[in-house]
Amino acid sequence: MARIPSLKSLNAFPHAEEHLLKKTYSGAIVTILGLIIMFTLFVHELQFYLTTYTVHQMSVDLKRGETLPIHINMSFPSLPCEVLSVDAIDMSGKHEVDLHTNIWKLRLDRYGHIIGTEYLSDLVEKGHGAHHDHDHGHEHHDEQKKHEPTFNEDAEKMVKSVKQALENGEGCRVYGMLDVQRVAGNFHISVHGLNIFVAEKIFEGSSHVNVSHVIHDLSFGPKYPGIHNPLDETTRILHDTSGTFKYYIKVVPTEYRYLSKKVLPTNQFSVTEYFLPIRPTDRAWPGNCFISPFMLR
Ligand SMILES: *[C@@H]1O[C@H](CO)[C@@H](O)[C@H](O)[C@H]1NC(C)=O
Ligand SMILES: *[C@@H]1O[C@H](CO)[C@@H](O)[C@H](O)[C@H]1NC(C)=O
């Protein structure tokens, strides 16, 4: 084959000279180090790519007419269930009696064990009366009878059973869910459902109402990973006074979007708490708890 000298210059992969192809120890070390660095960088990049980030985004809430679910689970270690009532009022003055509610009251003994349940189908109308579904056959006061200032047998029986419960150190856990309108309003867990005369007879003065409570859970919708409900595991024990605990709550509607594009509508909230001690001159009875969910709209 005839050699064309100019063709040789087109060789893109010229053979290196012999001394450049020698394998050396230092060369091997550099190669290994290089591989290690490449591998580390690759792993880091991959990790970075695979991490899930939570992205926060704020927007105006355009939802209308939806209800706000309130999940409660709280215990009153020193108040029997018979004296506790739950009620809710919104700004329009509407009493949440016809809304879907699912509240249970569990009787607790002095060691915190459950000894009975009672289902509240309706919320108490303020200043009116209680309508309870109960399965324990306790003597409950009737709506009309509660308005009567005079004592009758039912009231006497109730006072007796409550006093017995107080002596036994009975407490009550209130838990369940209640749906309210998304407007400013409040709900109370208190002894306000009691007739004032009955209350006077039971506690012998409003300063003896022990409103100590533990909030196990208070939330406004389903939980998502990383949600912080500021009132969970809040313990308020009073030793020598009584009064009203007020929790002012601001609810912020929240949507949690999963990577799968599934949306979980829920709510976050912030809380301001204060305690209003009862004064001897007060005629008012301590409300145990006054929680007002406010919507930011
Ligand atoms: C309420 O809280 C108590 C104490 O943390 C817990 O044992 C109980 O299971 C809770 N009840 C509900 C219905 O979540
Ligand atoms: C109120 O109840 C709590 C919890 O049971 C108890 O620790 C506290 O001593 C009680 N306070 C009074 C004044 O009896």
What does this molecule look like?
With 297 residues, the chain is α+β, with helices and mostly antiparallel strands. The chain has one domain (67-292). Helix content is 20%, strand content 33%. It contains five helices and twelve strands. The protein has helices at 5-8, 25-50, 143-147, 153-167, 196-203, and strands at 67-76, 85-90, 101-108, 114-120, 133-134, 171-181, 185-190, 213-219, 234-236, 243-257, 263-277, 289-295. It has a seven-stranded antiparallel beta sheet, with no helix packed on it. A five-stranded mixed beta sheet has the order 2-7-12-10-11, with no helix packed on it. A hairpin with a 5-residue loop joins strand 10 (243-257) and strand 11 (263-277). The chain starts with a helix and ends with a strand. Bound molecules: 2-acetamido-2-deoxy-beta-D-glucopyranose (2 copies). One 2-acetamido-2-deoxy-beta-D-glucopyranose (NAG) is lined by residues 77-78, 210, 212, 237-240.
Give the key terms.
disordered C terminus; Erv_C; binds 2-acetamido-2-deoxy-beta-D-glucopyranose; transmembrane; transmembrane helix; membrane; 297 residues; Endoplasmic reticulum vesicle transporter N-terminal domain-containing protein; 5-stranded mixed beta sheet; 7-stranded antiparallel beta sheet; single chain; alpha+beta; 12 strands
